[in-house]
Amino acid sequence: MTEKACFALACFWQPDAQFGCQKGVLQTRVGYCGARARHPNYPSVNDHTEAVEITYDPSIISYEDLLRLFWQFHDPCSCKKRQYMSAIFYSDEQQRRLAEDSKKHHESELEKQVATQILALNIFHEAEDYHQKYFLRTYHRNFYGGLPKHDPVTSTRDARLNGYLSGHGNVEDMEKDEYLSELTEEQLQYVRNHMTGEHKAPTVEPFIRTVIQVGWNFVKKAVDTQNLALLNKSPKLYSIPKNIAIRRVEFTDCWRATNR
C-alpha cells in the first residue's frame, strides 16, 4: 500500500531529485497546484505553485519523515512569489495535523516564524514532460539514452538516478539500491563517479537547450495572441549548476529585431 505527499520548495527541479533518492520513495513527479486556473503550464503558471508529488511506502518512510526532509531541503523563511513559495499541500485531516505540528516544532527550533503555507490539495496538474527528472534527462542525456526505457514519472529507477546524479544520497545506498539492478557495471561506475566528484563539470549545452525550449514557448504564445507585453515576462531560470553562468534573454529585443 502506498501513500502520497505534496510539497512546494521553490523551483520543483531540485526537490524532485532530493526526495527521489530517499529510501521508501517510489515515485516523484513535478507539477502545479494551489489555484483554480485550468491547464497551467510553465509559461503560464498563473497563481499556481510549483510542487512535487511523492508516492511512498509508509512502512519504510513515514509522512513525518518526509516533513523533516521538507524543512531540511530548503529555506522556509524566504518569502517568494506564489510560483516558488514554500507550502505543504495536505490531502486529509491527518496530514494537515501533522503538517501544523511539524511547522510549530520547526519554528520553535528556529525561534522565528516561517513563510510556509499549509493548504488543502485540490488538483495536482502534472508539469510538461521535459520537467520530469530534469537533471537526469538533461545533464545526463547520453547516459539516460543508453538505459532501458522507463516512464520518467512512474519509474523508481529514474527517481533514484535523478537524485544520485544530482549529488544527493550516498554511494553506499546507491550500491545496494535494488532499483538499479538492470544497470551495467559501466553505468554504475558512471553514477559512482558523479557521486564522488570524479567526473567532468557539466557543459552549458543542456541548459542552453532548455533556455531555447522555454523561450520559444513564450515567443510562440506571444505571436499567436499578438501580445507583445507577454514577451517581457520571460521566466528566470533556476537550479543552474554553480559553474555555469547564463544571462537572461529579453525576448522583446528578438521580436523587434525580426519585425522591423
Automatic annotation (TrEMBL):
Residue stretches in coiled coil: none
Residue ranges occupied by any Peptide methionine sulphoxide reductase MsrA domain in the UniProt entry: 4-139
Broadest EC class assigned to this enzyme: oxidoreductase
Record keywords, A-Z: Oxidoreductase
Entry similarity comment: Belongs to the MsrA Met sulfoxide reductase family.
NCBIfam families attached to this UniProt entry: msrA
Designated name of the protein: peptide-methionine (S)-S-oxide reductase
